[in-house]
Design a protein that fits this description.
Strand order of the largest sheet: 3-2-1-4-5-6
Order of helices and strands: EHHHHHEHEHEHEHEH
Number of helices: 10
Shape: globular
Strand content: 5-15%
Radius of gyration: 16 Å
Structural class: alpha/beta
Distance between the termini: 9 Å
């Protein structure tokens, strides 16, 4: 019996992966770093301490990881203020599931970005627990962020469902013991091994129903 649902944010509620890619690539190129084609895939699912260290250590930015993190978040918030790329049907799906379950968020985004998206979308009050992976020891694909979301919801992980889109997100939710519903990311679809861990795969948020969550 599923008692709560935990949403990922990026790629599930907001179509932001390309925004993250653009912002970080622009920063690296502006400041003389070494961007490469595999950088975005390498950082997908990382917590902010992890990806800011990656930009410093692997891509050659000379600013401290804390300074890198602050600048990326500032640029992301600026982009969101001008154009928030909500995924079609995502807000309706959140409202539909909120009528049946307590909801949480387990996201690799920084808390200010999570809060900005939820507030702008008018759904912040529907989430009883919001966890950024910067608040736990390890980012996705480790299970920490989902375990913490379940803890804050007061529900055993095995009685929670996750809504995910990416390989690392799927692995994270599965490792935490949640039932995993996947809407494959259109820009960077999950790899077959990760997708095989899903309990349910749908094409779009409008297919998410309380009945599907329960299975």
């Amino acid at each position: 019996m599923i008692e709560a649902v935990v949403f990922d944010l990026d790629g599930v509620i907001v179509d932001s992966e390309q925004v993250w890619d653009d912002v970080r690539e622009q920063l690296v190129r502006e400041r003389g770093g070494r961007w490469h084609d595999g950088a975005q895939a390498a950082m997908m699912g990382m917590s902010s301490p992890e990806w800011s260290r990656y930009l410093h250590d692997e891509l050659g930015l000379t600013d401290s990881p804390a300074e890198i993190n602050d600048e990326v978040v500032r640029r992301m918030l600026e982009r969101y203020r001008h154009d928030l790329p909500l995924i079609d049907g995502a807000v309706d799906a959140v409202r539909r599931l909120a009528a049946a379950f307590p909801l949480g968020v387990a996201s690799s985004s920084n808390r200010p970005l999570i809060e900005a998206v939820l507030e702008a979308a008018g759904i912040a009050d529907l989430f009883a627990a919001v966890v950024s992976s910067e608040e736990v020891e390890r980012g996705k694909p480790d299970p920490d962020v989902y375990l913490e979301a379940a803890r804050r919801l007061g529900v055993e992980p095995g009685r929670c469902a996750a809504v995910e889109d990416s390989s690392n997100g799927i692995r994270s939710a599965h490792a935490a013991g949640l039932r995993v519903l996947v809407i494959p990311n259109s820009h960077d679809p999950p790899d077959p091994e990760a997708l095989a861990l899903a309990d349910v795969v749908v094409r779009a948020p409008n297919e998410l129903t309380p009945e599907l969550v329960q299975g």
